[in-house]
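subagent[fold] <- orchestrator: predict structure for attached chain, return tokens only, no commentary.
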Amino acid sequence: QLQIVESGGGLVQPGGSLRLSCAASGFTLDSYGIGWFRQAPGKEREAGSCISSSSASRNYADSVRGRFTISRDNAKGTVYLQMNSLKPEDTAVYYCNTMAGGLDYWGKGTLVTVSS
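subagent[fold] -> orchestrator:
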């Protein structure tokens, strides 16, 4: 079964850091662009960051630019989202997404809670 799995979420205090990981089973992510999205309670899902297959192109939403860094290790088939200077408004379920073989793949998400 082809699927994407996110990990690394948890509870962190404001100003803290977390690193999320995104990996696939049944296929590898190294050939595909990857996006990180998030959905806060009661809000619509929003795009956070994306990275091309070669890492040559990286983009960030205004809300996370300067605090979050997207990267990938194609040898490990994993994409990372390093989140620093976390704020309570970053609390959300974070999802990884890719288009592979014409299909849209989403993970089940990993919960990030920023609270003191």
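orchestrator: received. Logging for downstream: The CA atoms of residues 15 and 85 lie 4 Å apart. The chain is about 0% helix and 55% strand.
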